[in-house]
Amino acid sequence: MEASGDVSRGGFKVSITWHGPRDAVFTDCIDFGGSQWFAGPEQKQQYWPIQNSKLQKYSVISKEDDNAAVGERYWLNSDGMYVYVAPEVPLFVDYHNVLENHLCLIAEVADPYSTQRLSNILQYDLWFFDDPKIAHQHAVDTYLGKPTGIPDYRMIQYPIWSTWARYSREIDQDLLWSFANEIKDSGFPNAQFEIDDLWEVCYGSLFVDTRKLPDLKQLVQDIKGLGFRVAIWVHPFINKDCEPWYSEALDKGYLVLNEKGSPDTSWWNNNGSIPGYIDFTNPEAANWFSDRVRNLIETYDIDTVKFDAGESSWSPQIPVQKDLDINLHPGHIVQAYVRTVAKFGPMIEVRSGMRTQDLPIFIRMVDKDTLWDYDNGLETLITTLLSMNLNGYTLVLPDMIGGNGYNEKPSKELFIRWLQANVFMPALQYSFVPWDHDDETVEISRRYTQLHADYADTIVAAMEKSVSEGTPVNPPIWWLDPHDDDALAIADEFLLGETILAAPVVKPGAVSRDVYLPKGTWRDGNNGDIIQGPIWLKDYPAPLDVLPYFTLVE
Questions:
Q1: Residue 495 contacts by C-beta under 8 Å, 6 or more apart in sequence?
Q2: 308 is catalytic
């Protein structure tokens, strides 16, 4: 154990290191106490603060299970203490199981970590500051990093329109053209038109299925003629029945192998085949993938790409990666993939992250379900936004308005409330459309789509501050007063920068809600009233067409 400090910010550090043979298991536990706790891995049931959730010996990597696509090893509490665990630790975390009301850090050489490790280590730093805001800014500067630029402005200002939730894989040339014209005729603005799954002749070919899309090049030009830019969906897999591309990748050593030498893995589009996962830790494989994507873009004059997946758990288990410190397996492939595709510019999106906070691109929330509750529904739209921001991923792309529709299509009420919750987040994505409902839905949606566009410059300013200072784009409301106990416990409000507070309605049937405003002078965005905080506004009226939001008066 070592102790040191950061005199300039009044911080104090304790560094803990346990070394041992590979069969040793180290467990250190930290009492949650009565504090509020934040950050930790992205979750399907994204409770906030996180001491309200339970995890049992949970591997902290970027993985598909529980929507944990962002897998950072950082925890922050309301007292101004934070924990950062070194990337080479084979880390599992436990909330409330090893010890009740404790966060336990467990280092064990076990699946999904490499069995080829020669030793085991548990190494982490504890930092203590006066409040969580100072502590988080220190963590950003010391460990997490900050973005080096911002995404495309039009993606921030206007909605992305995707085929995915509305049409799933049932797309063809006529449907795409019809959908683009629907959007155009509606009068809604757009950032881009996104062709999602399934356009390939087989998964991983990056060749267009001409049975469904006989003239994609002309279609792209026609859609652009309507005022859209065009994006296309791409993933890092090749199914075994996708020939000759699978054999080429396998023969050249471009697929991830497990410790038994097998490339066989699984993903959500196996389609009766067995996929391989391109090994982005192999520079030759990464270049091969990039060249093929670039050829697709250039051949069809496509503007940008939605890059899906990337979590390390898609690798065949337990994976062997190329030319890297064995102690960084398996998470390094996440960095390798995301850094490879980030070179395609500011209009792309990714969904996975692990020590990639510096990239100037949107990182999308993993798909949300068309539900209201904490089981990956609307309530988690806000808590996931907050969690990603406090993990240093400030350029967040929320999932599609209304959710993915896997269980059922969104009701009118859920659709409108989802859009309202999304307004002061960095971007909008439609797939289900307002005119799937009635004229009132269209008019409410038009108003809130425009409200988002009106605040595009405010969003950009918050992003630029994130680039320069590492601050969250959408902080929790305690950011304005990190000693405010009420603010520290709030899970259903958030800020845009440090001037806008959004308090969306996220409960079905609700036409009012309690709103908490931290210290400061606030202007009600709906009626212009001036309100002095800190204050609880009980039963703030919020019928279906009202989004409660407030602006901090300078």
A1: 472, 474, 475, 476, 477, 479, 480, 501, 502
A2: yes
Domains of the chain and any CATH numbers: 2-144 (2.60.40), 153-235+281-312+330-465 (3.20.20.80), 468-552 (2.60.40.1180)
* Spatial separation of the C-alpha atoms in residues 517 and 542, rounded to whole Å: 16
User: Which one of the listed residues 311, 379, 492, 493 is annotated catalytic?
Assistant: 311
pLDDT digits (tens, 9 = 90+) for 376-408: 999 999 999 999 999 999 999 999 999 999 989
List pLDDT tens digits, range 310-331: 999 999 999 998 867 899 899 9
The total number of residues shown for the chain amounts to: 554
Express each pLDDT in 232-247 by its tens digit. Answer: 999 999 999 999 999 9
Nearest CA-CA partner of 10 in 164, 176, 128, 162: 128
Q: Is 375 a catalytic site residue? A: yes
List the catalytic residue out of 284, 375, 443, 469.
375
**Does pTM surpass 0.85?**
yes
DSSP states along 141-203? IIII---SS---HHHHHS-EEESHHHHTT---HHHHHHHHHHHHHHT---SEEEE-S--BSST
Q: Which pLDDT tens digit goes with each residue over 45-92?
A: 999 999 999 999 999 999 999 999 999 999 999 999 999 999 999 999
Question: Is 88 assigned a catalytic role?
Answer: no
Catalytic residue (choose from 72, 308, 367, 379): 308
